[in-house]
Records
---
Amino acid sequence: MLNLVLFGPPGAGKGTQAEFLIKSFGLDHLSTGDLLRSEIRRQNPTRP
């Protein structure tokens, strides 16, 4: 199992690099930012 974590400030190219890695190596993508924005849109309280 291969786990990669891309760190960087907004606009640094993390998403661009993630798309390249996904296409090149057939990896799955999990974006914590996307998950958090989705939960905020759904107005779900944070679960402990």
Note: The chain has one domain: 12-48.
---
Amino acid sequence: MTAIKICGCTSRGDVELALAWGAQYVGFILAPSVRRIELRLAAEIAQDLPPGVFPVAVLVNPTRDHLAEIVRAIPRVQIQLSGNETPEFVASVTAPVIKAVHVAASHADVATVRRECNRFASARILFDTKIGEAYGGTGQTFPWETIADVAREREVFVAGGLTAENVAACIAAVHPFAVDVRSGVETDGQKDPVKVHAFCKAVKDVDET
């Protein structure tokens, strides 16, 4: 079964909505972002997550001190590193790590993507779309066939422009461990119950076929 990560949760209501439709991961963006949440609030919400649902702290080039503070504050946290973190830094993190690898929206090179993934052998990989200097949240897809071989060899998350309308095609092309959505389940910058339900249902429907 394909796991679901609902990212950019900024309130208890967002998390309850994600849980209602079966998400296994809820993302708290602690890096600069329009969806940034304070660590204190993220930690309070995460304390009430049921077994089998994991909080993911989304960070960009954190300091070691900030990272240690987050690991102490949020129970069972997994760390998503979406910046230019080195393999040595990633390997030193004491919590489970999801390392973002950004794939060009066009003309993505399979060999280049594989080499980048190989630098982070200790982490799960999250593929997101590379647009300019952005570290994510572009709302655009990338050529999924670029990562299909890597997804057959290790557990990967796929992000970047996913919606209820295209997530089934993504899963069919990649067979990822998990899919990750933020803006694709929002309306006017807020989590939309109808879109969250539709996205999660689309994932479950394709898994059942």
Note: The first strand starts at residue 3 and ends at 6.
---
Amino acid sequence: MTTISIRIQDDVLSEVDKIARELNVPRTEYLRRAILAMNRKVSEDKRRTRIMKLSNRVRKESMQVNAEFSEVEHDPGN
């Protein structure tokens, strides 16, 4: 495990300490959990964005296919 050093505003650190006490965990454990939670959120946001882009691409293709089927259904020659 690696040790890091960070600068943090006094009011933010006071809040960290308060919440850590309420959760009955050491400050370092609270910060470790916060970092892990942020990492998960960033990963989930990236995944959500990727899925939305793919969904939009598939939606456009589906609309084209639907339009083609609509033309075939209404073509009196078929």
Note: The chain has a mean pLDDT of 89.
---
Amino acid sequence: MKAIILAAGKGKRFGEITKITPKPLIKLGDITLIEHNILLLKKNGFNEIIINVSHLSDLIIDFLGNGSKYGVNISYSVEKPEPLETGGGIIKALQFFENKPFLVINADIYTDCKLSKIKISDSDFASLIMVTNPQHNIKGDFSILKNRIVLNNKDNMTYSGIGIFKPEFFKDCSVKKCKLIDILIGHIKNDKVSGYFHKGIWHDVGDVEKLKEVKNLFFDN
């Protein structure tokens, strides 16, 4: 199975930093945010990786190259002049997946999720990894009921930015700027999305304060 790392965003929550450094190349410990997830994918058997890029895309491509230094093969889906957001970015990259299921992971998360263990049934269009609600999303996104993702439940969890998707999930979607969550809602209502709770490490590293928090927890002596 191939995987895509979503890395096209402008990283505005990092302020001045991301005007010259794309968010995926911000360092967390000795290596960059995106390298943590490349190595996580490699560890879990994902050797074919697509990365969607837009903001300061040349810096990311030049830094990561073709993936040989990580023991993987990296291809790029370039979005110009503006990023297409999470949904549009995946739709534009569908050609890479040869009409087969693929794994999606956000570039700006830090996790120990066992990606190789994520399953999707023949009848579902997506399988999501959910986590405990962080402080910045205390109301959560969706709930899990008997491994099904459901709406309007009081026990909401947060979508981790990790999941397996089938091309059918994006059927009839055109390449345009759109959010993944907007497509998800319809498929959840039609009971086409499964979900599993990840109990281990997971952190959104979306701004300076969250970066400091993760550094303090895992990388400072």
Note: The chain has one domain: 2-218.
